[in-house]
Write the structure tokens for this entry.
Amino acid sequence: GTEWRCGTFIWSSDWKKDQT
């Protein structure tokens, strides 16, 4: 899926595993 984070369009599967 996709998500809007910090005003940037990124893949949820990406930020989830990269989440700190």
Notes: The helical segments are 12-18. The mean pLDDT is 63. The first strand starts at residue 2 and ends at 5. The longest helix spans residues 12-18.
